[in-house]
Amino acid sequence: MKVVVDMNKCQDHGQCVFAAPEVFQLDEGAHLVFVGEPDDSLREQVEDAADVCPLQAIAIED
Amino acid sequence: MPGRIVIAGASLGGLRAAEHLRAAGWKGRITVVGDEPHMPYNRPPLSKEALAGKTSFESLAFRPRAAAADVEWRLGTAVTRARPAGRLVELEGGERLPFDGLVVATGTRPRRLRCEGPVVGRYTVRTLSDAEELSAALTRPGVRVVVVGAGFIGCEVAATAIGLGVTEVTVVDPEPLPMLRPLGELLARALRERHEARGVRFALGQGVAAYSGEDRVTGVVLTGGAVLPADVVVEAVGTVSNTEWLEGNGLDLSDGVLCDSALRVGGLPYVVAVGDVARFPNARYDDVPRRVEHWSIPGDTARHAARTLVAALTGAAPVPAPFAPLPSFWSDQYEYRVQSFGAPVLGTADARVLDGDPAGDVLVGYHSGGRLVGVVALGGPSAAAAAARHRAELLRQPALTAQPGEET
After folding, report:
1. Which of B117, B120, B131, B227 has an alpha carbon within 20 to 30 A of B212's alpha carbon?
2. Which GO terms describe its molecular function (chain B) (predicted)?
């Protein structure tokens, strides 16, 4: 699974971190960092993370 | 026996309901009917980035999950009537759609003021076309703007207008401070100061008596008697639920559509409601049904309601535990973000600064019976991150209604 985040849209809300903490994190400056190719077992979590992003900046590319 | 689920309403709640019905194992048809001509799109930017022209309206469309690719969309078509007992909805034009399950997702529309005076020059912000029209009006040179309603949307519109270079922006509200009811006095005061520092004026403690002007609005007459000159008036005075189509069925439609803790409507196992039209009890707090107009609610309600409906129609999924979401909302005004977790509205009488200072980045905790029920951060990203650190604590707490030892 490939995760793409449109960093022009991302505003560091961090909702994705609650949905999929193994894939998305906020760094010390409260900016988003994420795993670009997480294990497929995390797909449901990542789909939830994409859903809850207020800017809809997260896309899953298979 | 796969049949058909009709989803009335084609915005975020309708989309998420369709996706979660598939996720919960529904194999039958799903038909989504909505009166807007567009596929579901994201509304929060309509009072902010999109209104400011920084985001194209096209980029606001949601990308439906792949599992929902076979959902039928009937756009530009309103549901005009329903007979839940007969499992039938009627569409604009008279067509009847039979259903096995129904999802009520028709949302809300802006409440309008019933005032004397001209109609041209009065705007609301709910739909794409609303925002496109208002955006064009706000960018006319020398425009004078009056925002009626000092809630989140009104204050976001005021901030966006200032960002567009509008020099005369006045916000009117009967309350003594902006955003007072949801946030309490401490943060309401801090936000008022930030708006005033940017040039927004407030006319608080009074309402609108009338609009002046001949063919179009030229002024807002306040209940105190003063007249505010205005070329553009934005009404942000709350919402009206879109439930007229459900009338005549004995349902409680007194404020949205009343649901039980499984999001069922009228005691019918095959009718559920989602989004801001749903008035539901949150088992996390109490048994009082409330409508919640947060962006997170369509997703949360859709997941729960889909499980309820699939359980009732197929028996394939277990009936879920009572609905108990942790509410969360945000509002962006200038470079500041208001970030909330939990239910601050239940604890505004006992709000305390947990960190920082109301003049800068600040984190406020809201308490009920001495216990933390919500946190709100105001400021930059680190303030929002501080609020997020309290989210786990809010999630861990037992329900306010729970008996000792009871799991929620």
Report:
1. B131
2. oxidoreductase activity, acting on NAD(P)H
